[in-house]
Amino acid sequence: PTRELVLQIYEALKDVSRQTGISIEPIYGGMSMERQIEGIRRGAQIIIGTPGRLNDHLRRKTLSLNDVKVLVLDEADIMLDMGFKEEVDKILTYTPHSRNIWLFSATVKAGIKGLITSHMHDVLTIRAMQKNVASAQVKQYYSVVQRRKRTEAAARFIEAAPDFYGIIFCQTKMLTSEVTEQLASRGLRVNCLHGDMSQNLRNQVIKGFKNKDFTIMVATDVAARGIDVSDLTHVINYSLPEEHENYIHRIGRTGRAGKEGIAILFVATSEMYRLKRLERSANTTLQEIPIPSIASIIAAKMSAVSDFIEQAKKPHEKLSEVHTALKELIDSFTEEEIRQSLASALEDKFFKDMTNENLADVRPATGVAPKEICIDRGRDDGMSEDDVRDYLHKMCKLVPQDISKVRVLNKKTFISISESRLTECMNRIRQSPILNQKARVSIVEDVFRGKQDRPRDRSDRFEKDDRGGFGKRRSSSNRSNSSRSNASRPSTRRSKPE
Length: 498
Known about the structure:
The protein is an alpha/beta fold. It folds into 4 domains: 3-119, P-loop containing nucleotide triphosphate hydrolases (Rossmann fold, 3-Layer(aba) Sandwich); 138-291, P-loop containing nucleotide triphosphate hydrolases (Rossmann fold, 3-Layer(aba) Sandwich); 299-312 and 321-359, no CATH class; 371-497, Alpha-Beta Plaits (2-Layer Sandwich). The protein is 41% helix and 14% strand. The chain has helices at 3-20, 33-41, 51-60, 76-81, 85-93, 110-119, 150-159, 173-184, 199-210, 221-224, 244-251, 272-282, 294-313, 320-331, 335-351, 385-394, 422-431, 458-463, 476-485, and strands at 24-27, 46-49, 70-73, 100-103, 138-144, 166-169, 190-193, 216-219, 234-237, 261-267, 287-288, 371-375, 403-408, 413-417, 441-444, 495-497. The strands form 4 sheets. It has a 7-stranded parallel sheet, sandwiched between helices. Strands 13-14-12-15-16 form a 5-stranded antiparallel sheet, with helices on one face. Strands 1-2 form a two-stranded parallel ribbon. Helix 3 (51-60) packs across helix 5.
């Protein structure tokens, strides 16, 4: 599905290629088409490629799959999630019926089942590990944090762990850039990775991360595919993943090679029911962890200061003239002046990012919850979470702190926003089309606001016709039938057209 994964597999097969004489050719976007054509013409026995670029070659007739014996779909679930189903179907039509398909997938979703039914025969399923189980080497935690203060919380966890080397996962490309900028402004060594970056830039970022030129990577799920780093200490989930399987994938990037890892998940108070659902699905338990206090961060930094001074005391090669001149300069100051200057220099080096604003409480305020709205457009209309957030940013002038959550379903989209921006945002949505489509917008009334357990996911409430649908009245027969079961079932929330 991604260029990074192509390169990772290509590098892994290089040794096999040298020892066996098998020729391998990587094919992906962002690389010279002519160079790829030359490689194919030389007679590649194994081609590793992305769906889009493979189809480009097939259309140009610079690649023939008539003699393919084995076709491997790696990360098939992600490939379909990225919208490559049609591209994959086209590639399969160019292959002979006698070929074998090896399909590697972490999950077996509806799209995977459809692909198996359409293109595979005499299917044998092999499970490589127990379903949805995280590594025992990974310690899993959650922390309740206001969405607008999550970057501050992430910074505190990073600063409290002097050896931090990890990935912060965000849902959208825009959010990865914003979090990266905010962390960098604190003096942290950080970079981001997302799908809008050029291939050369992505390669540079990945190389820099592996070389520890920076130790914090902020990335989306798809962009992080293909990054193979064995000694990551931490994974921070900036929010709950929409798919529970993604959570297992994310935290599986730490705790490798027998080393322990730490995974931290940020949640809102109103999302506790989703956290419980994640624990059941992933067959795991997350322990609550407090956000590091300023005192603990100062203690960690003081330890780093002590190490720095001890390192400076060790004998090392000196520039004699410079060393002598510095000692003479220091001798011209009093002991108290030297002590004060050294303290100021160390404070500037290790503590300059700590301000009064950083000392504020990052726990959520009780009793405060964003308002949720629903628009009658979703995935079926070509809408993605990035599209929605981009629209809210450009058209409604909302900043990330105003948007608590965006959930894009097949036919509808739910957005949690600050109550202070609610009316203005709804008026703008009514006036300005989203992706050139007019949309209806309504407030979602939540009778479970602030509760930790909810009866079911929003997608169940609004995607099923037998529940009456969004903004629809039930028939009298439905109401009478439902009234008999209401005694044993908690009430659900309804939407109120605005």
